[in-house]
Automatic annotation (TrEMBL):
Pfam families (UniProt xref): ADH_N, ADH_zinc_N
PROSITE patterns, A to Z: ADH_ZINC
Keyword Disulfide bond: no
Alphabetic keyword roster: Metal-binding, NAD, Oxidoreductase, Zinc
Protein name: Putative zinc-containing alcohol dehydrogenase
Length: 378
């Protein structure tokens, strides 16, 4: 099998002019690995498309620390080619979206209906193992390669836990389905599950990557009265309007646009940048009783300093949202239903498709904001 492996992170200097060129540094090595077979509780999946997400970039630049070497990629679609022992509800040939939290179904979070926060999944995702056993990937020389979030989908094949897939209808195009496992699940869930936006509310979304744009689509779908989409890259603004935003602008425009649409603040602000400073700004942009949903991943060293009185004094809420508080087996079919009805234009997120050998060039394109979702095929 073929996979893209990260052996060492390429730290970002933080300054835009000194961003590393991944096309030159080539941190991801596309190589042949020994092909593992699924164990009990696992599936072999032929990956058709995987897409590059900001969380992959965060592992590459070292802001998300993971055990290396690791085969990256966590947003993908494929077909089941082999089924391990004890799996009776998935068959060879099934069309599957891969999900990056393999929920155990039995821990405290799973039992309370919050599988996105599964304790066992967090542990094995952190160690680079799979839910039903230790890492299977090996170089031809026998060196262990860690799995990324139980998926490792920048590859032509993956062995994953049964809990890492959701079976979908055969006829959904792979280029659409590929984006449902991370971007769509996370962005839509932030709005529909975490914030539970209702018709007529005002919503602002900060950061217009695939997650932020999915949040814009969800707010529009929920019939929010106004959907204000903010990103410093004005090249993203037309796309946000196409996704259902009612107003777009840069961070400098945000206060004016919010005042115009929602008076003293929006009901819900979604932070999809991953910046402590933007989370703090969002708290200033919500009205009394409003909620900020923190969905972007800040650097682990980032700390938040905000006026403490706004919580008890103005009823504001700060809500963390991991994977959109999703229940994947419920939400992916639900969201695919919206897409089928023409109410969720997920195609807009798909910028282009490239061969897996161009994955490092893809990192540059994502880091510079040239692409929303670039799909890869091995
Ligand atoms: Zn992702
Ligand atoms: Zn669990």
């Amino acid at each position: 099998m073929k996979a893209a492996v990260l052996y060492s992170a390429v730290p970002s200097t933080g300054s835009a002019s000194q961003k590393p060129s991944y096309a030159d540094a080539r941190p991801l090595v596309v190589q042949e690995l020994a092909r593992p077979e699924p164990r009990a509780g696992e599936l072999g999946v032929a990956i058709t498309y995987s897409s590059l997400c900001h969380s992959d970039l965060s592992v590459v630049d070292g802001s998300r620390v993971r055990p290396l070497p690791m085969a990256l990629g966590h947003e993908a679609v494929g077909r089941v080619v082999s089924v391990g022992g004890g799996v009776s509800d998935v068959s060879v040939g099934d069309h599957v979206v891969l999900v990056f939290v393999p929920s155990c179904g039995d821990c405290r979070a799973c039992r309370s209906g919050r599988p996105a926060l599964c304790h066992q999944a967090a542990e094995v995702n952190g160690s680079g193992d799979l839910l039903h056993g230790e890492a299977l990937l090996r170089t031809p020389a026998g060196e262990r390669i860690n799995h990324h979030l139980g998926v490792s989908a920048f590859a032509d094949y993956a062995v994953v836990a049964r809990e890492s897939v959701v079976v979908i209808d055969d006829d959904v195009p792979d280029t659409v389905a590929a984006m449902f496992g991370c971007a769509v699940l996370t962005g839509m869930g932030a709005v529909l599950n975490t914030a539970a936006v209702t018709a007529g509310q005002s919503v602002a979304v900060f950061g217009l990557g695939a997650v932020g744009l999915s949040a814009v689509m969800a707010a529009s779908l929920a019939e929010a009265g106004s959907v204000i989409a903010i990103d410093p890259n004005s090249g993203k603004h037309q796309l946000a309007l196409d996704c259902g935003a009612t107003a777009v602008g840069t961070p400098e425009d945000a206060a004016g646009l919010i005042a115009e649409a929602a008076g003293d603040g929006v009901d819900v602000a979604v932070e999809a940048v991953g910046s402590a400073g933007v989370i703090a700004a969002c708290l200033g942009h919500v009205t009394r009783g409003g909620a900020v949903v923190s969905v972007g991943l800040p650097h682990p060293s980032a700390e938040l300093t905000v006026p403490a009185l706004q919580f008890a004094g103005a009823g504001k809420r700060l809500l963390g949202s991991y994977m959109g508080d999703a229940v994947p087996g419920r939400d992916i079919p639900l969201y695919l239903g919206y897409w089928r009805e023409g109410r969720l234009p997920v195609e807009l997120l798909h910028t282009d498709t490239r061969p897996l050998t161009e994955i490092n060039e893809g990192l540059d394109a994502l880091a510079s904001g040239q692409v929303v979702r670039r799909l890869f095929t091995a």
